[in-house]
Each structure stands twice: as structure tokens, then as C-alpha cells.
Amino acid sequence: MDLFDKCTAFTRANQARAEGWYPYFKEIQSGAGAEVMVDGRKMIMIGSNNYLGLTQHPKVLEASTEALKKYGSGCTGSRFLNGTLDIHTKLEEKLANFMKTEAALCFSTGFQTNLGTVSTIVGKSDTIYADRGNHASLVDGSRLAIGKTLKYRHNDMQDLERLLNSDNGKNGGKLIATDGVFSMEGDVVDLPAVMNIAKKHNARVMVDDAHSIGVLGKNGRGTAEHYNIPQSEVDLVMGTFSKSFASLGGFIAGKEYVVDYIKHHSRPFIFSASMPPSAVAAVIASVDIIENEPEHLAKLWANTNKMKKGFDEMGLNTGASATPIIPIHIGDDMATFGFWKALFEHGIFANPSITPAVPPGHGIIRTSYMATHTDEILDRVLDTFYKLGKQFDLI
Ligand SMILES: Cc1ncc(COP(=O)(O)O)c(C=O)c1O
User: Which of 2, 106, 116, 388 is 20 to 30 A from 165 in CA distance terms?
Assistant: First the structure.
């Protein structure tokens, strides 16, 4: 058997290309705005995580350009050795301050942050209790960790408690790991219940707030703020810079001694080059904007509420969404791709999600909203969904 037989046997992508419904790797010829250019055509973007629209904010662009000029294009080394700039440290201090935690540590991507945190903090005799709906990076972090992983049903607190009660690994440490906002469904973890259960069972809690920071809570601090839970009570909060922070990278925030341990043991942190200066500066500027320009958060929620109400009123199924991520449930894979293609032909860029991103047969069109979407754009989106919803027998 040849190693590459699996590649030869993989024909699905080519088949989709030939049939004209291949939805991936679409080239965009413009910046990540509310409208984008694709194949020379202007399209409405409702498939981005640029929640606050900061990728085009003048202060972000200026900070990023200045850093590029001052420090050059890359750091060419690990944070551990030659790759720590003064602005990396400044950003970590700023994030710890914003998140109201003792310390924060930046990784080069959000994915690496989860990989490098979970695999470092969970040792041989420890157990991870993970929501079945967690993002792939938390899943892979658990796979890399040498401790064991037990999965509970999505956002099902009784199931979590059942696992903790029945677990025989009681002597080791326990980590409950969950997304704050689930990236496909747009629903929010029942964090108060998670915190109570954690307290009762002496478990630590890690929340992936990739889609929550800059989105949830009065000041955009994420899931804990959304529930009025003091930030310091959540043991580890993870965030990415690839969404509200308009850049690339990620961070873990928590107690100083825990973050320091991760800093000195995490292989994805130590053996990988640090965030480039322009990316760091963009995040610093974004934190300032989030703290000083609350109008972006207010507009994001006005847009989100308008779209949720609009979809629900027409009878489309938006599941348990309670955030700017609003999935439209379609079902079968081919119907999902068909709906995606029709949207695309109508000038709307959305994301089709099928298994393994969602359970088999539960295909969705994942839509997500930004502060920079205008009412006129959003009305066009609603009109198109209404028309196609009828055509596809969803309404
Ligand atoms: C919930 C969640 N966690 C982590 C990540 C990884 O972040 P990044 O894309 O910044 O690597 C993502 C990104 O898709 C995500 O949705």
C-alpha cells in the first residue's frame, strides 16, 4: 500500500469543483470589510469574525504601519529567546488589565494558545472535562495532553456533573474546558452552572472566549462579564486576536503563577516564533478602541438583534444563537451547499458548515455580523434569505 493512496481516494473536492458547488478557499480581492470583492464582483460579507469591524479602523492601520516601520516585518524567533519585543510585553500587560486578571501570555495564533495551554496544564493523572461542542483547538489540546479527557453533552450541566461524580480519577487535578460562545451555533455556555459545579468538585475552569471578547459583556470583556461573574474567578480565559482584535494571535489570561508556569513549559509557545510587530500593534490599538469607543459594541448588538429578529420572524431556524453568530439550519449536506451557492449567486458571502464542524445531517449556513454592516446591507441580506428560504422550502 502506498502512503498516498488516501490522497488518490479523496475525490470529493474535485467532484464538488466539477459540479460547481465547491465553497472553500474563495479568493477575496479586498480587505475584511462589510462588503468584499470576489471575482471582480462586490459581495456582502456575512461570513467574517471581524465583529467590531476594526480591521479597517484608521487607528489600527496607523499603529500597525508604524510598528512595521519601527521593528520590521517579523521577529525571527521564539518569545523565549530573541523574539520578545517591548510591545509584546506591553500588550500582555494591557490584556491582563483589560481582562482584570493578574497576567496574560500571547501565543502566535489562537489555535496554538489552546493547544499550548491545555497540553501544558493537564498532567498524567489529571482529567479534562470537555464540552462536545468545543472548538477543534481545545479538542486537539486535549489530544496532546497526557491526561485523560471525558466529554459531556453540549452545554448539558447534568451530564458534566454525572461525569465528575462517576470519574475514578478523583485524585488528579480536574479541568473543565469549554467554549464561551460556541463558534458554529453562536450559543453561550451556562457559565454560572459550570462555576458552581467546578467549586463543588474542586475543578479548575478554562473558557475559550475567542468569540466572546469584544462581543459579550458591558465592556466586551467576554463570557464572565456577560454573567457578572468576577473575571478573577474563572481560572483561565483564552482569547484570539483573529476576531474582534482585528489581527492574528491569541492569549491566555489567569493567575500570575499559572501563566508563568505555562510560559516556561508550553511547547507550542516556546518552540514557535513570536507574533510579528504589526500584528501586536494592531491588537494594542484594538484594545484601546474597545475601551474608549463603546459605539462599535453597541452597533454590533443593534445589528445582531435586527438579524436575529428578522430571521426568526420569517420562520427560519436559528437554533440556540444568542450572539452575532447566527446559524441558519438547513440539514442535509447537499441542501446546505445548494443554499450556500444560491446565496453566493445573489452576492452574499456566507459559510456553509457540515460535519465534522456540526453533527451529521445538521448542516448550517453560518452567518455572523459586524458593527460595520449598514441597515441597507442587512435589509438586502434579509430579503435574499426570505426569497431563498421559500425557494428551498425552509419557510
Ligand atoms: C472558539 C475558537 N477557539 C479558537 C480558535 C482559534 O483561533 P485562531 O483562528 O485565532 O487560531 C477559533 C478560531 O476559529 C475559535 O473559533
Answer: 116
**Does 285 lie in the same domain as 326?**
no
Cβ neighbours around 93 below 10 Å, total: 12
Task: Out of 48, 112, 240, 275, give the residue to mutate to test ligand 1, the one with the largest number of ligand atoms within 8 Å of its CB.
Answer: 240
What share of the chain has pLDDT > 70, as a percent? 99
Three-state SS for 284-302 is HHHHHHHHHCCHHHHHHHH
133 lies in which domain range?
58-292
**119 and 195 assigned to the same domain:** yes
Cell of 23: 465553497
* Distance set, CA 62 to CA 239, 279, 282 (Å): 23, 12, 8
Residues 9-19 pLDDT 10s = 999 889 889 98
CB 206 within 8 A of CB 226: no
- What pLDDT score does 168 carry? 60
CB atoms within 10 A of CB 58: 8
Which residues line the pocket of ligand 1, CB cutoff 6 A? Answer: 109-111, 114, 135, 137, 179, 183, 208, 210-211, 240, 242, 250
Number of helical (H) and strand (E) elements in the chain, helices listed first: 15, 13
Q: How far is the CA of 111 from the centre of ligand 1 (A)?
A: 6
Q: Nearest Cα to 49, choosing from 181, 211, 186, 185?
A: 211
Residue 323 CA to residue 156 CA, distance in Å, equals 19
Of 323, 320, 395, the closest CA to residue 362 belongs to: 320
The answer on 119 and 215 residing in a single domain is yes
Expressed in angstroms and rounded, the spacing between residue 236 Cα and the centre of ligand 1 is: 16
Q: Ligand 1, atom 9: nearest CA belongs to which residue?
A: 110
Please tell me whether the overall predicted TM-score, pTM, comes out greater than 0.90 for this model. yes
Residue that the C-alpha cell 439550519 belongs to? 329
